[in-house]
# Entry
Amino acid sequence: MPSVETSLIAETQSATFPTLALDCGVRLRDVSVAYGTYGTLNTARSNAILILHALTGDAHAAGIGKESGNTGWWPSMIGPGLAFDTNRYFVICSNVLGGCRGTTGPGSIDPTTGQRYAMRFPVITIADMVRLQKMLIDHLGINRLLAVSGGSMGGMQALEWAVAYPESVAASIPIAATCHHSAQQIAFNEVGRQAIMADPDWNEGNFYDGKPPARGLAVARMIGHITYMSDASMREKFGRRLRDKEAFGFDFSVDFEVESYLRYRGSQFVNRFDANSYLYITKAMDYFDLSSGHPSLAAAFDRARARFLVLSFTSDWLYPTYQSLEMVNALQSSNLDVEFHELSSNYGHDAFLIETDEQSAVVTNFLDRVFGAL
Amino acid sequence: MPSVETSLIAETQSATFPTLALDCGVRLRDVSVAYGTYGTLNTARSNAILILHALTGDAHAAGIGKESGNTGWWPSMIGPGLAFDTNRYFVICSNVLGGCRGTTGPGSIDPTTGQRYAMRFPVITIADMVRLQKMLIDHLGINRLLAVSGGSMGGMQALEWAVAYPESVAASIPIAATCHHSAQQIAFNEVGRQAIMADPDWNEGNFYDGKPPARGLAVARMIGHITYMSDASMREKFGRRLRDKEAFGFDFSVDFEVESYLRYRGSQFVNRFDANSYLYITKAMDYFDLSSGHPSLAAAFDRARARFLVLSFTSDWLYPTYQSLEMVNALQSSNLDVEFHELSSNYGHDAFLIETDEQSAVVTNFLDRVFGAL
# Structure
């Protein structure tokens, strides 16, 4: 496994644009986007890779945060000598529209009212997120990205990029992703949303001056965590191990380690995530349907010009391999250059964050070929 | 598919016992158990089958409720000419201990205080549920059951019966069950419990004089429903179909049919289920571990004398086939007579309630052989 690079220093920057046109028809004003960059843009401006984060990620993808001291969310994939090699490539990662980590979202101040948007924030889509990313890339003076890549919702954005801005993307690497959510994926997101909205502290989204809906958001996060792991990885990590309690000392606090883990992860989440962002972003994922407005998924890809590397993981039951295969078949029907690997892993959907060996090798080789062919 | 029998009239009866010793050491006083019977006990008292319900079931397993007019929860399996043939067998089904459908549970009055137990109800186990069922069977004058059978938690009880009362069971038919919950199964139950306990209306369990924790219980039920269905059955039933709304007329009410279904099922659940029962019964499921106190699972079965029919379903990802196979292997290691079938179905864990054809045939033949061999 490549070591996690710790010499890289991450600093989140920000760009602001006067207006952003959304799919819903609203024009959002004074839109800020938080982003981080790693490595150096070459003089030909041909080595830029845009990394796209999943539901709860942020701009801090790699390196050690200058202020926080924390590592980024994909440290084993981005850095000197790693798959997204910062000695060779200029890596950019921005926080998504609707987020709560520096980019405009429901927790931001609406310039027209001077109040936070809360649930008055307009409905957003994956395409809206990508439109803002395109403005950022233009702002950075980059005409064409060497690659766009991300896992989960990041993979949806990688697909949207290739279709929406075909001339601006040489390669797209969607990982553990889908062209549209299944009923089951929508259902899991919906239960998370219901848990948040059931919390009286949510207060129709107006919680910014009071307590956040910590209990509801924790339940949503717990559901998320179960779906990100696999049956096997949970068994390996927790089994049926009991917390340090006497037999029949049990009650409704905590008996099993898995309960303790979920409660802890759920309760921590509220410190770093806005419940309204959770609502808006999960809805954007559920609305995403690349084939919408086209006679077929293959037809949706007709505009695309990128080369594709599609990855899935054997134990990922939330974004199962059949969804990646649907994508691959449509790409092939559209005569696009596509390479597909189902990588072996027990880690479930989390595998794209954890399984570095094979994923690194495949991404390294693919980028090498794409960069060499420019 | 055998037709659902509607000529059978179901009437819930009740038996009360002065005391019930629980695994936790508490002796519960004045314990009532609600039960229904279908068919006629023969003079040899050798044709009795005990049907064991799952988490949210009740004593009304079959026929039309005399007062409610509703059908039971397993109408396609129990009735004249069906797998559990009421022309031939005397079928009994009782509501579990800790439940809220006539059997003593957290919503019952504690005779020592005159108040409802609420969260002062003692911790219960699957073995406690079975101990109460044994008292009922004794009360009905039945020394030995022809068979015990149930799906999901009912299957756990069917296993416990065979081990706890080996002389009282000729055959055990656990369906879509397990000898112990996995970390993932515990995790899903735990999120449901957290959702309930996060609802301020739960009020530490003291909601009987006020509003029940409807929102928390609804979220718990929604999570349950997702895990009871399969990815494929949800796709078939809902796909990505939108509710009757304009494009971009979406908001945080309901967009997709699957959301509408889950919300409806969640909101209805509170009318028929006690949130505290949900907490106690899911904990009993999580605690269940047949191998506990034995060197191996096979050793746990050493006491058993029954013949076993074990069934699982291909698309059941909540109680996957490997759990039934673990059971089958242990039964075989213990030299017990066991027949196993993995039945083909797209319906996920719900299959045991829905897939009647193959299940009926297998159960009919098995019971026929067991009854013939008495």
